[in-house]
Structure formats: structure tokens, C-alpha cells
Amino acid sequence: MGAKDSKRSCLPYEDAVKRMSDEEYKRICEAFKRLSGGNQLLSKQSFILHVLGDGVPQAIAEWLYIACGGTPRGIALKDLICGLVLLTKGKQDEKIRFLFTLYCNDSGTHITRSEFYNALQVEGTIPPDKPNRPNILWERTMLSLFSISQDRVTYEHFSAWIQYNKDATILSKWLLSNPCVSLSSEVEAPTFYQTLAGVTHLEEQDICELEKCFWTLQSSSPSCHLDLNCVRSMVCPPIPLTACEGLFLALDVNRDGHVDFKELCCGISAACRGPTAERMKFCFKIFDMDRDCYLNPDELRHMIQTLLLIANENNRRFSDRSDGDDHSKILDSLTNRLDDRGGLSQEEFLVWGVEENGLVEPMLELLFQVCHVSFVLRPHCRHHEHDIVTGWLQREERRGYHIGQFWYLISSDWWQNWLNYATAPRNNLDHCQCRTNDPRLVEEGIVCDESLISTGTDSNDFNSNSMESMGDLLSKGDNCSIASSSGVSSSSGTTGSKRSQGMPGPIDNTNLVAEPLHKVRTLTGEGGRLKRDTPLVQHRDFELVPDSLWKALAHWYGGPLPLPRQVILPPGSGEVELELYPLNLSIWMHASQAVGTAATWSSVVGGYGAAALNTAGITTAPITSPRRYLAHTAAFSRLANIRQVIEFLCSRLSLRIEDVRLWHIKDATSLLEDENATLQDLGVVDGDKILLEVRNKDLTWPEELGALVAGGQVLSAERRPTISLPPGATGLHNLGNTCFMNAALQAVSNTRPLTLYFQRDGQLCELNSINPLGTKGMVARRYAELCRELWAGSTRSVAPLKLRYCVTKHAPHLGGGGQHDSQELLAWLLDALHEDLNRVARKQYTELKDSGGRPDEVVADEAWLQHLARDHSIITDLFYGQLKSKVTCQTCGHESVRFDPFNLLSLPLPMESYTLCEVLVVRLNGETPIKYGLRLNSEAKYIELKEQLSRLCNIKTDRLLLAELAYSQMRQILSDEARVNPGTATELHAYELPDNSPKGAESEDFSNDMDVEIAVSDSPLARSPEVRGGSALCMPNILCFKNKQKPDRQLINGVILKKASISTHSSTDSSSSNKFPTYLVAVHRKSVRQETYFLSQQKSKPSLFGSPLLLGCHPSSTCQGLYEAVWSQVTRLLSPLPQSDQTNHAMDCDDSLGYEFPFTLKAVLQGGQICAICHWTQFCRGCTLPCSDELLVERCKNNLTGMCIAIDWDPTALHLRYQSGREKLWIEDETVGKCRKLHTEPIDLDYCLKAFTSEERLETKYHCSNCQDKQPATKKLQIWRLPPILVSTK
């Protein structure tokens, strides 16, 4: 196809732009900018994924990409616009020209028969060739375009032919006959946000912004819910701590322990956007803890205390009405309204609040501020915005500074522009009467309406992680600052709407910050170094706002440059201060060292050995000190201690604390060892260099390597002075992946008898330098030197360079720079010491005799003496024992016994032979899943797992489906014969399969019109919260399907049935059943609105969530039965409806309550994105399955193979009723704890010894001396003679 090598321009760019609306053009440009990352070209992958979307075959997508102007580097914006307009709004002749470019040759002059045939095969118009079967479709298509003798056609011929054969190819049918793609869609159903906005006092954009806040807060909450602790952390202060629980309960209407999204929107609407009466009712609910619309004496007392506290603390600007006398009069008026029980009804409270609002008014205003600032809700009116911001700021200024608190700097220039905008007199564009009335008790939802001129709101996303700054998270309650960072997003996005002509832009603090000294990444969020050339003065150069207020302003206007500064308490000072100038430090690190491939000394002994060769008396090529480079900058308070700085750097750079050290680089480099010392105490000043030293992979320290290279000493005297330590307290340096050697050396060194032997120079008189099996005494001498250094107690650590050299020379397999087995080196070391210290000068060969029925004592002594005749040393005296090995012939019973010496026992660890499995069993009846624990042999297969699981859950093995889940779908169905994967064995899911086996005579009793009757009191549906709460989601026709019943029916699990729940017909055709799937996988989907898209089909995309379900399937399954099967499994995931009438909460927005089911089922392919019935040219996300008695196989047109079911949730029900946390709830069987305990409990030495000495069957046949043939046999080991010191390893 010619399009693969070049492009053809079928539509000029100027003409394409004229056919687009301004909104379409701006949207496509914005989408191109975001997806291309600001580049000039959009990649091919982005074009296929985001422009065309899912479902388009890869080959056709690449054709379209190149035909639209794509190149190997990408596609330009102009070419993309031309291609999109041609596909969606092109004329017929333009689309025909476009098709011609797809099918024509490279030169673009004609279409050849062979290329056209290949193209039709690739796009699917013509099926693949089959031997000995003529393709009639191909012949007809070719004869209509090409004559018998014609092999090519021109554009004119093709154009005339395609106009009369628009359905000839898939692409021609897509573009000419049935175009289904468009740039924009005129018909759109009301969204959930529009529905909720219609029944509250919030705008649609307000609800969208609140949703971002809600989900980020919920995801950051430890309980994954907006619970009391989460709400308290957001609103307290300024809400008093004693009133936080009441505020939470006022929001939590259904009293389920958390605030859902609908409750949050409706609560905020009632608290700050509703009329005065509604706002006062919400205030009343804060104190009505038992929700009986009546304040008892205790609740009344609590209300008075809270109102007085808020009035005195938050409302001093109304001082003319808030003095003590006025409060007394107001309280007297309240007392006169109490009833005989000393309580107050809601009606009396409303009347009192209107007539004497001196105490209620401050509470209403505080709620008004909290809703807008804490939940970053943008005020509709600029005048109210001014009152909110200034009121919040004045209250916090009166509170004063608190240790650890963050305040943010805002340029006075921007602040003044904002004041001018917010305080300007009302004009004709405001549609607002705020400044003409009393600013108190203004009903914003009534008098403020700027929606006529508002086109959107700011584009900054609210980040829940910014609810606390980095300093708050790291040093709560501490009197010193950590990193001067901020959790506020530094997005440079600006507000999308202009509420008036003088509206300020993003907060600009650039005039307060000096130019950065270094062009490297900054780890902290201090925003930059403040200017020092001229002193910055508050109210002249900058203003200070508290943390929560900054987040609100940055969200409303955009804050690309936050400047947080922390409140500290300097030592010796009684007053706190705001640290405007934290210490800006440059963080240096070591450059990674290149590793050579040559077998040099450096590669043999590692960094230390290569750096300290003079101490070993060996020459090698010189190496350089590790190079330092400037990696980052960071700002810290002068009162931050070393421990806090290290923790912060490790968290930002994903390093382990134990692998990090800090050095202060000044006149001399010094290690910062005292973790409790502050930067101020250590003399660190602004602009200093801090070296962040990270331990190498071979566990060496780069600075110590540099010290070795520079001076030949491992550690400087300043850092590691010679001291007096207890004997044996000296450690060993890692010489580059030598921890395996150090572990073995320390183990042998702490063998006290052997250490005394070398300390007393016992090896000098027993050194065997002529033993050909030894090292001529080199290992013994080097180990003796190392042993004396380790037990001298004169230094903290030594480098075993000389012994390492001996190991490399005499055991090359243990050399190199790699890691080795410590057990292997230990065995070699003991053997080398033994041969160097062997008291037998020349070994004589002796043959070990067979036991021949002699007593074990005689045979053992004989073997031991023969061993000592050849091998006798201090190692033999201390470490050697004797093993008895008995081999028993399984044919004749003959026993052969041998006694062999040993110096090391390699004991097995039984836990290695077992795999811990945890399986979550999901049943078809929708009950809460149960997790079971199992321990299987490491070689076990999944069929063995299913057999054990079947005994635990009482489900037959053939009715269990094991699967691994990932990304809300089944990643893999596990085969019975596959070996259990230990990596995923603790995350398995077992689904109960339907029982499709014939029921014998009982099955024949069913007729097509027979239904099932559910006993409501016992069924899972009856146990659901909807049925108990009287929810309209549970329709009567779902609860009871009644018809004529036969007298021999049975009640099973509360359900009277004789057939599968989703089957209405009995299957009698066995051949069809074998070809029919026995189950279908169902995935949860929700529609997600895309901020950027090209085609209207991509405006909303389905997104998978939750855990997939498994539904039984049968040739006689109906769509109605499928709905019922899904409903029975998802009922437990829905929250109950509130039982009481909530006037302040818009219950009527839950339009899903009128549906028979709160979801729609659709037929999709695996992956849940593409329709399983429609062709890809329809861009269908899944055909809807009707809730009717229509057979599933007929509806899906026999396309059940590879098909899944998509559960498309109604947006309202998903937001308001679906509880994602319930998906993660399961019942943990006692087997889980038992298996975990068995798998992790420590194994004692006795257990390992018993496993070591247990009898085992030999895999290969043994030559029996009695049978004179190879026979099956068993072998048993036994420790006959124990050494003084037993060495056992894994």
C-alpha cells in the first residue's frame, strides 16, 4: 500500500480549519499540546491510542497514521487536523481520494490487483486463503473492479467503482456508507454532576472540583474513607475540637461512619450555599448529636459553650455586637425559649437564631469560611471571596505563630491586585447585590449569580497530599524545622474563567526570589532563595498567609511558586519566629565508578584492596578517588538536626538510612556523626556544601576508598582514632563484595580454642610447608596475623587484605568482585588451615574395609584411626567428627555401613520445601469471600491446591477456577497441571463455577415457563442492606419470581429451585453444550470524562475498577438471568439508604433508585474496552444486553467465545451507593493464621538434625554386594562421633 511510504494531502489545511468550530479547534490544539508534551510532533503510539482509540486493528491504525501525514518521528498538528476533518467532515470525493491513497501503489498512480487483494485480506474484507477452497467473495470483488485481463486501475476507474460499491471493503463501508465518527456530539445525556447540581445550591464545576478533593482525601486517609479523623484534621482549627464530631455527624447522614461524596456535596451546599434557614438547620444538626430534632440539656450546654468560644475567637470584627452584655441578653432570650425539660426544639432554635443572631452569626460565618477554604470551594462572588480570605487571615493573625506551623509569602504586588479586584464596587457584570446589603447573613445562593459570565474555573487539581506540608509530616510537635518544603502543587495552570475584568492572574512571587545559584534539581519546596540585597519587609514587599489559606488561593488562581516558611523556636529565646531565610545547601554526591572487565587486582579484592596495595606489598595500576558532583539543592532550617536531614533526603531519593552518611565540606571534610546535633550547632551556614555519601553495592564507602588512595590509611585519624576496645570487638572492612568472607572469618575467629592457639603462636611449630595439598603455610600465617589484629582491641576495624589475597591466589573460584557463598569459603578455610597445620608429613594410602557384620564400635574406631593416620591437626582436634552411613537393600535387606569423617554439617531447612498459599474463595451466591491458607510442597501443582482447598470450602474440585487478578480483571486462568508459582501464591482467587451437570429425572420436571421462588428471609438478597432498609433498589419482582410449583420442590439455601439461577431452559443437546462456555467473566466499568480528546467517541472512556465476577453460562441462559446473577453478587457492595428524612440533603438526585438494576450489562471482549458483537468500525464500547427473557446466545449472535460481560454502573449509584471498601473485605479462615505461623516460626537445631538423620530413598539404584546387582535402597545418616566444636550450615 502506498500510504506506508509517503503521504498524500487530500484536504488543504485552510479548508479543514474552516469546517471546524472554534471550540473544536481549541480542544484539538489543547489535546495535541498535552499529549505531545509541548513538542511539534505527536508520536505514532499516541495517535493510535488517543486519536483512534481502542479497537482499531494495529495494521489499519498504522495505515491511517501514515495516510494522515504521519512520519517515523511523529505527526504534525496541521496534518492531524486535516486527517481528522477528512475522516469526520470530508466530502465523498475527498474520502474516495483518501481511500485511493490507502490502496494505491508507492507512486500513487494506480491500484494493482495483488496489492489490493493483500490489503483486503489485512483489513478483513477477504478472509485468509484456504487450500482447495475457492474464495467466491474475492472473485466477485475483483471481477467488479478488475477485468479478466486487467491488472491495474487508475483513480478515475476506482472512484467510479467505489461510488456504486460503497460496501465493497471495510474501510469504504466505514467512511462512505456508514460513517460513525465525529469531532463533537450534539446529543449528550445529563451527567451525574449536572443532576447533583440541579438539586443542590452548587454549580456543576463546583461539584467537579469537590470530587477531586473528595477522592484525593479519601485515598490519603488510612481508612480509605472520609472518616472523623480525616474531617477533624481538615477543619480543626478553626472549628473547635469539641464541635468536630458534631460537624462530622451532620455530614454523615446515613451514620455509616464515613462521609460519601453525595453527603459532602449536600452538606457543603446546606452549610454555605443555601438560604439562611437551611444554613441554620445545618448548624443545629452539629449540636443535635442524637438526631431527634431536639437539644437536650447536655446538647444545649455544649452548643452554648461552642457558640461563645467561636463568637469570642472568630468574630471580633463585629465587636459592636459581641460584648459580654449582648451575650448575656442573647442567652437570656435563649433561656426563655426552653421547654419544661430544659431543652430546645429545632423550630425554637431557628426563631431564636433569627431574632438574636449575635451568637449564631459567627458560627454560620465560620462554616461559610471552612467550606470554601478547607474544601477549596471557589466562592461565586468576589466580594464574598474578600470576606472569606480577610476573615480567615485576621483570625489566624490573632492566634499568632505556633511552632512547626507554615506561613506562605505572597508578593505585595499580586496581593494588591487581588484586593483591588475583590473590593471594587459592584458593576453591571457582577449580577451581585452583596455590597448593597448587610454583609452578614448574606444568602449567597440567592443573590450571587455570576454564572452568566463565567466560562469555567481554574485548572489546578487539588492534591490531598498537600493537606499537610512536608514539615508538618516530619516534625509534628517538634520545636525545630525540617525541610522547608510545601505540599502545595506548583502547577502553573491559570484560572479558566474571568469573573470580572480586573481578575488577577496566577500568584506571581518572582520579584521576591533571587536567581538560583545552581541549575540542578531542588529537593525541598521552599520555592527559592529570597532576595538579600534589599531587606524584605512585610506589608511592603510581601504578605503572609497561613497554610490552608494559601492552598485555597493557589487552587483558585494557580500558585506556580509557593514560598513556605516555618515557625521555629530558637534556642535560648522565649519567642517563636518565622524563619524567612532557611539554609540553602548544595547536596553533593559521588559519581558512579566504571567497572573494568580485566582481571586486575581491583577486580579481585574490590575497592579497598585496590586502594591499599602498599599495605599488602603488591603493586597494581593506580586508581583515582571517587569524583564528587553537585546533584541537588535543598533548604533546611538551621535548627534541623542531622537525623531529620538524613530521613528527609532518604525519603526523597529513595535511599535506605543505613546506607547514607553526611559530610560537611568546608575547609576540611568532616563526617557529621552526631545525629542529634543541629545544623546551627555544627557551624553549617547558608550556601555550604553537604556531601551525601551512599554506600556502594559492594558495601564499601566511597570516602574511605578515597582516603585509602590519598594516604594509604583506611580511615582518617580524625574520624577513627586508635582506642582501647574489648578483645574481639574489632570488625572487618568490606573489600568489595567480601561480606561472605568476613562472616566466615568472624565465625572462625570467635572459636575461642582456635584463637588461643594462634595467639600463642602454636602454628609455628606445626606449620607444614611441604604438604602438596596445602598453601605452604601461607594461609595459616596470614590468618594468624589477622587473628592477632582482631583480638588486640586497638582499632575498631581492620582490612583483611593479605588473607584476601591468599584466598584469591589459592581459591580462584572464590575470588573476583562477585558475591560468593559464605559456607563454601568456610569449608575451604578450615581445609586450608588443616592442610597447612597437618602433623602428618607424608600420607600413606590405606583402603577402608567393609563392615562385614562387625560391631559398629569396631568399624568406627578402625575408620577413625585410619583418618588420623592421614589427617591430624588442630583443626581435626576441634572440628572433625564422624558420620555413620547405612545403606539398606530393599530387595534382600542387606545393610552396608560406612563411617566417614566430617568437619561441617550442611543441614536442610524444611521451610524451603513448602510454599505458602492464600486463596480467596468467591462464591456464586454473593456471600462475603473467605480466605483460606494452605501449605503445599514446592513442587506441587495447582490441581493439588484445588484438592486441598475443596476440602476446606466444601466446593468440588471441578467447580473451582483458580485465577490471578491484575488491573481489575483476570490476568491469568491457572491450569491444573501448572506448578504453583510462589511469587503469586498468596494472592490467588478461587471462583466457584456453576453446576451444569444434569439433574436426572428432576431436571426433566422443568418447563420453559417455570421460575424460581426465593425465600426472602434466608436468601443473600434478603440479607442485603437494601432489603433490610427498604431500598427501592430491591424491586419486588427481583425478590420473588412465582409461578405454579410442583409439590416435590426442595428448599436449598433458602431458594426453591431445580435449575441454575440464570438458566430458564434445560439443555438437552450435549453437542451444543460442549461448544458453549460454562462461565462468563464480568468486569466493573465506570465512565470517565476525558479532559482532552480528539473524536467525540473518546470524550468518555470506560475504566475498569473493583474485582471481576464469574457468572454461570448455559445454552439456555437469558439476559434477565444474567442480570439477576450479577445482582446477587454485588448487593453486598451497596450501602443502605438513610431511614430518616433529610431535608438538607438532596435525596431526589439518586435517580438510580428508580431503575430495576443500578447497572447495565454489555457484551465486550477481554479487556473490557471493545464490543464483542459490533465491528470495530462502529467504535462501540459494548452492546447493551436487555433485561428480558431473550436468550443470551441469540442476543450475542453466537459470539460468546472470548466474550466478557461489562457491568456499566449508573454514575449516580456508583458515586452514592457503591462502597469500594467493601470489595476488600473478606472473612479470614483460621487456616490462614495457622499456615502463616507454620511458615514463619523459627526452626530449631533439633528439628534440622532430625531431618538430616531421617531415612530417605535413593533416587538411583545401589549396587548390593549381597545381590551382586543394582537394587533400590534406602540411606540413613547418623552422627556417630561429635567434634568439640560442631559447624553446621544451611
From TrEMBL:
GO terms for biological process: protein deubiquitination. The keyword Calcium applies. The keyword Cell membrane does not apply. Residues 484-497 have a biased composition (Low complexity). Residues 380-568 form the DUSP domain. One of its GO terms (molecular function) is calcium ion binding. It comes from Zophobas morio. Signal peptide: none annotated. Its EC number is 3.4.19.12. One of its GO terms (cellular component) is Golgi apparatus. This is ubiquitinyl hydrolase 1. It comes from the Eukaryota. It is an enzyme of class 3 (hydrolase). Residues 482-512 are annotated as: Disordered. PANTHER family: UBIQUITIN CARBOXYL-TERMINAL HYDROLASE (PTHR21646), UBIQUITIN CARBOXYL-TERMINAL HYDROLASE 32 (PTHR21646:SF76).
